[in-house]
Amino acid sequence: MGRHSCCHKQKLRKGLWSPEEDEKLINHITKHGHGCWSSVPELAGLQRCGKSCRLRWINYLRPDLKRGTFSQQEESLIIELHAVLGNRWSQIATQLPGRTDNEIKNLWNSCIKKKLRQNGLNPNTQKPFSEDANKEANKFSFSFSTADISKQGVSQPQPLQFPYETALSKPNAPSCPTQFSKVFDLGSVCLPPACTEVPNSPYLEIGNPSSCSSSMFDTGFHSWPEMEGGKEIQIPLQNDPEETKWSDYLLGAFPVSSVLNCEIQPLYGNDIKAESHLKQQAEDSFGTDIHRLSRVFGQI
DNA sequence: AACCGGCCCAACCGCTAGTTT
DNA sequence: TAAACTAGCGGTTGGGCCGGT
User: Fold this and answer.
1) Could you tell me the end-to-end alpha-carbon distance of chain A, in angstroms, rounded to an integer?
2) pLDDT score for A134
3) Which InterPro entries match (predicted)?
């Protein structure tokens, strides 16, 4: 991997763009398209590196950009998406037409974070700080029952195929956020290495705080892909994956969340429902995120 | 009017992943 | 296969603006 070639070039302008520079870039791209960004400065007659040109175009000059302040609806959508995707600004931006990742990132860091804090919510988890503290204390001591999954007619411990990976690995698979493909490309849902089967019991014990990353519990999926040697839970493929669509899963066909019958937690309200122990923790690990995504993508 | 501090946002930097040679 | 190159991402920075003193 080489360094970006423009880093070595001298006599290139930096800092704010002048109207003349903007005009040159707009004219060039309008007429010829950007093509290879590294050649744009030369062709457009600019003393800038290609990277700088690209950024200027994407973040400021693109004709399809929606300028101006974010609406309340957009802010809510960003919060929803951030809860699921984390700081994947470019992916969040894809769900907000006319908005750039940079813009969203700035909004998040300057405004939304503050608003959430003012409402007593942790910007990272979007849950009340007090609840985070409780979870911090309890998160390594729960079990969840694989027998719940068997209620769906799946006899355990038979391995069950998880639908996402099959669908996603196909060339014409429905598109989905990278966050999901990162997780599900693994081919199954991997539990952290710290999970162990409880002997003679239908439970999986999640313990060993030293090897379990807290981010998994705080933000749902985040640390699953990094885990190695995880135990797999596989979920049955009931339909032909060829015909499987993202919306099918997001809008209710996802077996685990349907088993758990998760409910959506209001983001802004302080009225957090008291859920059952099992259900709440299962939601924390994946159910809520699935439903949130479902809602969010359903809005679009 | 001058200074100060906080906020916002455009742009930069460093890095990784993917592609080409 | 490895090196070189490009595109794109996320974190960070710095300068301008604005309100308060």
Assistant:
1) 38
2) 57
3) Homeodomain-like_sf (IPR009057), Myb_dom (IPR017930), Plant_SW-associated_TFs (IPR051953), SANT/Myb (IPR001005)
